[in-house]
Design goal:
Oligomer: single chain
Bound molecules: adenosine-5'-diphosphate, magnesium ion
Number of helices: 3
Largest sheet: 5 strands, antiparallel
Helix content: 25-40%
Distance between the termini: 17 Å
Shape: globular
Low-confidence stretches: none
Length: 128
């Protein structure tokens, strides 16, 4: 099993940075391009959510991303310590991000830890 963790202050710049960091790391473990692209799309949506929704009104907070490669499975976990996931009336997004991520990942679990925030775990199956 191989695993890597990134921690960043929530901010728009972190979306492409984390997406690329995760893709580079996973690519280093011989994952095919098709899966990398799909995974990057899902990671982008979920990290964007943490940036856009977890810390509203300019609040500061961290985002932690953990990528794990184990056998045929690649798991990406995106954790924030924000307000927790709840429907947001008038969200600036199109409201499709979680749906897209859920369609791409073989498994997706969204949890609300007792101490607050949102913990999203996505598992992708590699074929090559
Ligand atoms: N990390 C998060 N923290 C707080 N709320 C979240 C988080 N992720 C998702 N949400 C909530 O779930 C809703 C749906 O997310 P999503 O499907 O990506 O749609 P969109 O981001 O376009 O609104 C968001 O509008 C927001 O209310
Ligand atoms: Mg979204």
């Amino acid at each position: 099993m191989a695993s890597h963790l990134w921690k960043a202050k929530a901010g728009a710049d972190e979306v492409p940075r984390l997406r690329h960091a995760v893709a580079d790391y996973v690519a280093g473990h011989g994952v095919c391009n098709r899966l990398l692209e799909d995974m990057s799309l899902a990671v982008s949506e979920v990290v964007t959510n943490a940036v856009l929704h977890a810390y509203p009104h300019g609040a500061e907070g961290d985002i932690v991303v953990v990528a794990t490669v184990e056998g045929d499975e690649v798991t990406v976990r995106v954790v924030d310590e924000g307000i927790g996931t709840a429907p947001r009336i008038g969200s600036p997004g199109a409201g499709l991000g979680l749906l897209i991520a859920g369609r791409i990942a073989q498994r997706m679990v969204v949890e609300h830890p007792l101490h607050g925030g949102t913990d999203v775990r996505m598992t992708f199956l590699r074929t090559g």
